[in-house]
User: What shape does this take?
Amino acid sequence: MLPSLVLFSFFVWVPLLSNISLSLYTTKGFEKIQFSGLENYLAVFKDDLFVGALLNTCEYAFWSVIIGFLAPVIMAIILNEIVHFKGFFRVCAYLPNMVPGIAAAILWTFLFDPSAGSMVNSIIVALGKEPSLLIDDSDLSIILIIIAMTWKGAGATMLIYLASLQSIDSTYYEAARLDGANFMQRLRYVTIPHLLPNISTLFVLQIISVFQVFYEPMVMLDGGTDASISLMLLSYNYAFKDSKSGYSAATGVILAAIIIAFTLLYNFVQKKLSPQSE
Assistant: This one.
């Protein structure tokens, strides 16, 4: 127990407290020069780039819920219904999760490249239409990045849902069939209620993860654009491109505060809505 606490403190609490401390100082590189209180936070909030990055990060979270959150659930339900070659399809679904993140981002960059020679644009041209801007299009870039992230990570989440599905007592399904329930009714009254505990937990974890999106826009958009930059990427740019480590630290603290606030709010709402609270 003690070694775990020491390691956790060293790798989590020490960097966190150091970052909070750094955010309160005027800096030169990563060196603290003078205590400035909340000046870094005020400067960050006045920066239009920060406001844009915050809105982009919220958009990442929104599309992640619409696309990335539902995909593993649907995949698990489909795989649970498959009778033949279950192992083969499970391996195929999980395989993208074994691809390194940077490699996956580069792969999807080739697919979504705005040039006419990219795979997707080659198909579009073959259909007799003009090639699309794809990943460089400000209206599409975040959605396409979320698609790439979903392809990369849905397999592991799908296995969690699949394990939960296979733990459901078959007598529930047999009773539902005897009562004349079709597939959609069995899904609504048997499958989804058993998945809800996992869905609830993984929803919070996914939002936390997506709020920290970093290397995908950096790799897929060559450092990111104003329309796709996230708070994590902005924090990186502040520290290593603009040499404003105080701004970077302040951005990191703000991001952590947003994630903590969301988690507390979600837990509060869930507790209010749970049957035990009635």
Notes: The chain has one domain: 2-277. The first helix runs from residue 2 to 22. The chain has a mean pLDDT of 86.
